[in-house]
Write a structure and sequence with these properties.
The complex is a heterodimer of chains A (about 170) and B (about 525).
Chain A lengths: L1 H10 L8 H22 L3 E7 L5 H8 L12 E3 L8 E5 L7 H10 L5 E5 H6 L21 E3 L6 H13 L5
Parallel strand pairs in A: 1-2, 1-3, 3-4, 4-5
Chain B lengths: L2 H10 L4 E2 L3 E2 L4 E4 L5 H10 L3 E9 L7 E9 L2 E9 L5 E3 L8 H12 L2 E3 L47 E6 L11 E7 L2 E8 L7 H5 L4 H8 L7 H15 L6 H29 L3 H22 L8 E2 L2 E2 L5 H27 L1 H7 L7 H7 L3 H6 L6 H4 L23 H25 L17 E7 L4 E8 L5 E7 L2 H11 L8 H8 L3 H5 L1
Chain lengths: ~170, ~525
């Protein structure tokens, strides 16, 4: 036990302020954002992540926003296991033919009002997989999308920025 | 002459023809008549060979019919056995009763190529869903892949367990965590799982078909996105296969840089995995400590190679980014910091009794089962199978074993702890290799021009990604274009291992077991 505590204290807090560009955006929208999260989402934003056919690259970076450097919980953002509790769907793509029904069901199971953020180049427009017999293309082809976060995969900072943009009502379209 | 060819030759005599179109020619390829396809498997099984992959091709554009291929591995050797099949009657004798992994390979062949394995015990479609039209065989040349697929009615037929107190738990495809989609169906009595059935295919994106529409150069980007967490190893596997078709010479420095990327990918993924396994045993401390170390690796990658996962940096012909003296110093100081903290948290893992209680004797894949299922990579090495392409099929620079010596950990208990511990020791070993590479990096160019493959040639590669052996097999068509690019991610065989490791465990241990395997859905579904 003493080793665990020593390691924790020695590591200290590594959570960083976000890079200047994002930080600026945060300050700009800061008060409004907090107000928005407070008003619309009772101080916390709950996200259900859905992989609709990604290569798993985007999932790794979504995991990363939970690590101690990015620590998304400080903004009141956390991930839930059920769409029934979610305010936002964070969807990676492309939407595969075999995931289309599951994605629609997840969308329908999420209570309104809800936000949908499409993650990654494939989530935006199908990326390298495009449209084919097995891939329907971007998330927008199947469910309405509020904000697009491009990148292959998008960096954790880009992801946070996209989530904040969706909450703030800015669109990345 | 190879040992495996020697085993086949006396039995097959004039019925066997050794193929010259296979590159590298060190990987022997022989043709046998289709009625003796399964007999070859029987002979090779007696020599203790393992089945590495099985696939089919549509060779109508080359003026032939279909063809079925099986790739066997024994020690340092690979042997491809193929049988041509007429277009009018595309059937071949099933290998499933000889080699278990053929069970899913052959269902996949039937579902996507429409080539029938006769005598296969379970002909339910695999990856292809029941709501696809029956006659949709995407890998056939006659199939138009640009059109959306029609959706029909259809339900998957699950294996059922019956009896007093047996109940069923369906899980997925959308899982509770931030992971890929797949469906698991448990039959349980009380807390104990009596059967687990996996159903995969949800993230099938038509990757193998897509390759056929790309040029050899464009293909590497797609290979890098077969499984996002293994982007370096897949791009490397594809590149080596393509290079082998032309007998290209790749600069020495490029080989070493590729190995550097590969080992860094291994370190990053293992750090994440060890943390996540402990987290699934409710020991979140390890997750936060190790995901911090993982983030440090990714940040160095981003600073030096321009991408956190080093995506699109391995290309046919070499690599895209070099490493300068500043970069070397940065990596060395990063490794210094990581390895110090890593050893501290590993010590805590070892001394935590409650964690020990969860990970030991949980999710056991016995060495016998591992061998029967022909599993590869960390899963194999945790169950007593000493397999590692870096040693047994060394691709450069690992072929310089007098210089780049590897010490690969093998455990025999096959439980969650064994799979975790193999990762722990591999992190240490990879850190050592990265240091060695940095000290011994040869000078010279980092890429060479390579020509396009000639018509009707075949290329092969097997590389050790962080999950295990990745196989690429490529075939050029009549104009030298991509006729077929077969991808065999380690997950294609290892998922069967998970299914076999679960029965007898309690339901709440499933996430822990699953995480210790951590197989790719995308790499399996393609």
């Amino acid at each position: 036990m003493i080793r665990i505590l020593r390691q924790i204290f020695r590591t200290g807090i590594v959570t960083e302020p976000l890079p200047p560009a994002v930080e600026e955006g945060l300050i700009r929208t800061g008060a409004r954002l907090e107000e928005a999260i407070r008003r619309r989402f009772s101080r916390s934003l709950t996200i259900r992540q859905v992989d609709a056919g990604s290569c798993n690259g985007c999932e790794l970076e979504i995991h990363a926003i939970n690590n101690s450097f990015y620590n998304c919980e400080r903004f009141g953002i956390h991930f839930t296991a059920s769409p029934r509790f979610a305010d936002m769907l964070l969807v990676t793509g492309p939407v595969s033919h075999n995931m289309e029904i599951a994605l629609k069901r997840t969308f329908n199971a999420t209570p309104t009002p809800k936000l949908v953020v499409a993650v990654g180049d494939c989530g935006c427009n199908g990326g390298i997989f495009g449209e084919s017999y097995a891939s329907l293309g971007g998330i927008g082809k199947v469910v309405p999308v509020d904000v697009y976060v491009p990148g292959c995969p998008p960096t954790p900072v880009a992801l946070l920025n996209g989530i904040l943009a969706a909450v703030d009502g800015r669109t990345g379209k | 002459m190879s040992m495996l060819i020697n085993a086949l030759a006396p039995v097959f005599g004039d019925d066997m023809r050794v193929e010259a179109a296979q590159h590298p020619s060190a990987v022997a390829c022989c043709t046998v008549p289709r009625e003796r396809f399964a007999e070859a498997a029987r002979v090779l099984k007696k020599t203790y060979a393992l089945l590495a992959a099985e696939w089919a091709t549509d060779e109508t554009e080359l003026g032939r019919g279909f063809c079925v291929y099986a790739c066997y591995r024994w020690g340092r050797e690979y042997l491809i056995v193929r049988s041509p099949l007429p277009s009018s009657d595309p059937r071949f004798p099933s290998l499933t009763k000889k080699f278990l992994p053929a069970y899913r390979f052959e269902r996949q062949i039937q579902s996507l190529m429409g080539v029938e394995p006769t005598g296969h015990p379970d002909m339910r479609p695999w990856i292809k869903f029941e709501d696809w039209p029956q006659d949709a065989f995407p890998l056939r040349k006659t199939f138009d892949s640009s059109k959306p697929m029609k959706r029909l009615e259809g339900e998957y037929q699950w294996a059922r367990a019956a009896g007093e107190g047996v109940y069923e738990i369906p899980v997925g495809p959308v899982h509770a965590g931030i992971i890929e989609p797949g469906h698991f169906r448990f039959q349980a009595v009380g807390e104990m799982v009596v059967n687990l059935e996996e159903r995969l295919g949800y993230v099938h994106k038509g990757i193998e078909k897509k390759f056929e529409a790309l040029t050899w150069r464009e293909g590497v980007r797609l290979a890098g996105r077969v499984s996002g967490d293994t982007t370096v190893a897949h791009a490397l596997g594809y590149s080596i296969a393509v290079e082998s078709m032309e007998d290209s010479v790749i600069p020495e420095r490029a080989h070493w840089l590729r190995a550097l990327y590969l080992e860094r990918e291994r370190i990053a993924n293992h750090l994440g995995d060890i943390g996540a396994i402990c987290n699934d045993a409710a020991f979140a401390f390890m997750l936060y400590q190790l995901s911090r170390l993982r983030e440090l690796v990714l940040r160095t990658n981003s600073a030096l190679f321009g991408h956190r996962f080093i995506m699109d940096r391995v290309l046919p012909g070499g690599v895209a980014v070099d490493l300068d003296a500043r970069g070397k110093r940065l990596i060395l100081s990063e490794l210094e910091a990581i390895s110090k903290d890593f050893e501290k948290v590993v010590k805590i893992y070892e001394e935590s009794a409650s964690l020990d209680d969860r990970v030991r004797d949980t999710g056991i894949l016995t060495p016998e089962k591992a061998r029967e299922l022909c599993v590869v990579g960390i899963v194999a090495r945790a169950s007593g199978l000493n397999l590692d392409c870096r040693i047994f099929n060394p691709f450069p620079p690992y072929d310089q074993y007098d210089r780049l010596e590897l010490d690969v950990p093998v455990k025999i208990t096959g439980d969650v702890h064994a799979r975790t511990w193999v990762r722990v020791e591999e992190v240490r070993e990879s850190i050592r290799i990265v240091r060695f590479i940095i000290e011994n990096l040869p000078e010279g160019p980092i890429a060479a021009d390579i020509g396009d493959p000639g018509p009707d040639t075949m290329g092969f590669s097997a590389v050790e990604g962080w999950r295990g052996e990745i196989i690429y097999w490529t075939q050029a068509g009549p104009r030298g274009e991509i006729n077929r690019c077969m991808v065999r991610d380690p997950s294609s065989v290892n998922w069967l291992g998970l299914e076999q490791a679960i029965p007898g465990n309690i339901v709440p241990d499933f996430p822990l077991c699953n995480k210790s395997f951590n197989q790719s859905y995308s790499g399996h579904d393609l």
